[in-house]
Amino acid sequence: MNKLIAIINVIAWSGFWAFGYLAVTAEGLTESQLVIAALLAFGGLVTGIAAYMRLVRASEASGYARKSNQLDAAARNRAQSEGGI
Length: 85
Prior knowledge:
By secondary structure, the chain is an all-alpha fold. The protein has one domain. It is built from three helices and no strands. Helix 1 (about 1-25) runs antiparallel to helix 2. The model has no long low-confidence stretch (mean pLDDT about 90). Keywords: Membrane, Transmembrane, Transmembrane helix.
């Protein structure tokens, strides 16, 4: 499953860069073609970020990557009450 998500990630980022480049630099395109290119670039951006976040979450869960340095709820509440925030 992780390999499929990684492939989706690569394809999504490729679409983001390709269609984003077209939307920004292309000359002689109609307004509707520019809107479609921008929408496809935005779709690639959203899909790429979502796939990347799933890959990060999966790699942390499997032990391949270190877990993020986040406090649990009790420690965060204790630190906020001691800090006066």
